[in-house]
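Check this:
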Amino acid sequence: MADSQTYARMLSDLHTLLEVSCELGATTELGPLLNTIQQATLRVLDCERSTIFLYDQRTDELFSRLAIGEGAIRFPAHRGIAGEAFRTQQVINVPDAYADPRFNQEVDRRTGFHTRNILTCPLMGIDQHPVGVLQVLNKRGRSFDSRDEELIRTFGAQVGVALQRQLLLEEYVEKQRIKEDLTIAHSIQQGLLPRRPPVVPGYDIAGWNKPADETGGDFFDFQMLMNETVAVTVADVTGHGVGPALIAAECRALMRASLSLTQNLERVLALVNDLLNHDLPDDRFVTVFVGLLEPDVHRFAYISAGQGPLYHHVAATGEVRELGTSGPPLGVLPGRTYELSRPIVLEPGDRMVVFTDGFVEWPAPDLERFGNERMKNLLKEHAELSSAALIQEICKEVMTFARGSRQRDDLTAVIVHRQ
């Protein structure tokens, strides 16, 4: 009679496990999957409570996304009974919880629940790496026995694979969502750049930008002001990615708004600096170059708040002069003032060239940087090229020099050439 009862229980358990397998395969979201697993555990093992602890590889912790009868729990992956099951990858059966020093009695005190016995099973993925732990409490009417251990081991094998599958799916979906968001951000940011350079009689003007990631912290801008004056802006926010891209968008808006009110660059830079100081975190700042081209008198004056390198290519002598900056970056010190440069008169063939430092600081595999001298030589060697063609030639030369090393910084270039 006992054998027939045991056989009937085994059939019932097998039938329950098959039902659970179907449920696990049909659930396609992590939250409902965890709930399905926990409800099935209570039914299969006839116990009072069930908790699934997932492994957080970044923090080396086990945590409960959902715990029936408990709040969220998080603890180091080597601690306690669950931690030992995870570390040893063995089922642990504790018939008397309060007699086991590994048991954390604080949870019972906090919740008012009384734990009598515990059965804990590691959840193994298809690659035989643990993805978490299943822990059940208080077998109804008795302690957990060897049959329960075998049941939870069999059940845990199915659960581990189902969880790993769903975690990988969630990770993939999240990566796709982030990728889509970054694509949208890239499109928006590129849409803020000038679609074409300004048409200025007697001048060939070009600008170009390539972020290191989908979004970047560099931008350039051309703005037509009163009396045919052209404002030329190049800026570089520390870092690259979404955060610097947002700061770059704010800086561009502030510069355009200020320049539309006044052509006094000293006032513009002082105002934008104070506004950015109010908004930027302590670890962020913006280097900005802004120049005014007066084409009727061929005069170019500028302020560079830490932005370089800057070059004046003098056509008559072939000399490439490296120009200095006017003060520190924006967003570092409130109340800072900036001094306008002495106006440069552009003679026929002269060029004003502004780069962000990603060009000259791009290293080759041996860590040697491209540097200013190579840049000056390129400007001399290719003086016959148009502004746009010259930027592309410089990009090609820099990437050839880099010999496949990864672009680590955003690249932006603007050239103003008096023809």
Summary: The first helix runs from residue 2 to 26. The radius of gyration is 33 Å.
